[in-house]
Every structure is written in structure tokens, then in C-alpha cells.
Input
Amino acid sequence: MRIGLLGGSFNPVHNAHLQIAAEAQFLCRLNRVIFIPAADPPHKSVAGEISFACRSEMVSMAIVGRAGFEISTVEAERSGKSYSIDTIRIFQEQFPEDDLFFIIGADSFLEIGSWRRYAEIFQSCNLVVVERPGSPVSDRIAALPKAVREEFTLNRDDGCLLHHLGTTISFVTGTPLDISSTSIRRLAAIDGDISASVPPDVAAYISQKRIYHKCR
Output
């Protein structure tokens, strides 16, 4: 089985997240895409201190009826920071016979050299890098951290990067949605219309619970 892992704060989950998941699902022929809300993100705090339970509930609403999409609360079930490599290791233990595909936006990929034990991520699973507005990956080898560039070769036929241990980095290009959780929170804080950026049930939930009003 081919399993995609998509992590993030999801504060809130929005249509660009769903597009990223769908495009990765199609490109890599994924049987499952698992959304993994971060309990305690290592690089930044959760804006507005929105609870894990609240963010997870919005993800659950967003993926209802979408074939192959599901949610995991694994990062709330362990203590400490939500480091990606630790999460990947957990899924490796759960699905030792399956192929894992770690899905990230191009903006995160360009910063991956600052991540904890990032070299192990490249060795442990496949990566799917999805284009994001303002974050082009024009030179794919050069976009890698210097310390690991020699471990990869570029496949000229499909543009994938191949690690010497057999894992791959695939790139999804197209027309990325220019949506950010920050802009949604700001708009929701003043009762603005966020219906174009998030699924209907999520928009209604945010409005009814007044989730982001304290973010004014």
C-alpha cells in the first residue's frame, strides 16, 4: 500500500491543504492520505493557542466524503515537540510493509535543512513536494541542503530526485491556491467571509464557535 503523510498545524485546515493532498494522491497513486495535526509544532507556536482538539475536529470535517483521506491524532498521543522524523518513525513501525510518502509544501522543503534530523527523513521515506505561491523550486538539486546533495541524482525524464538508498523526492507543479491560515484567521476575527478559503462545514464551525475572535 502507498500511504501519504500530511502534517501541519491546520489552524485552520483550508482548501489549499486539500488541494495539496489531492494532487499528491493523484501523482503518487496513494491509497491513503493521512492528515496529521501537530500537537506541539517545533518551529512556531500555534497561533491563538487554538487547541489540538479544535484543529483536529476541523480536519475531520474537511475530509468527510473524500476517498482515501483520513486523520491521525498520533502527535497528541506522545509527549514533547511534534518533530516530523519522530512521526515518520511511528508510521514506519505501524506499516512496515507499506511505502510512505511525506507530503510537504515547497516553502517547507526549502527550509528542511533547519529541521531536526532532516537527513533521516530523506533516508526513511519518499517525499512529495507540492508547489506553493512564492516558493519556486527551479533547481531541485540546489534546493537540497548542501550536506546531502551528493546523495541524490536527478532523473531527467520525470524530474524526480533519487536518493542512493532508493527513496525519491517527487515534485507537484501546477496552479497552487494562494491561501494562508494566517489570512483566514485575521478575516475570521472580524467576522469576514472565509467561505472561499475553507470547506463549508469548517467555515460554519469557525463562525459558530467564534474560534478566532481572540486573535483580533
In short: The beta strands are 2-8, 32-37, 69-71, 99-105, 126-130, 152-154, 161-163, 168-172.
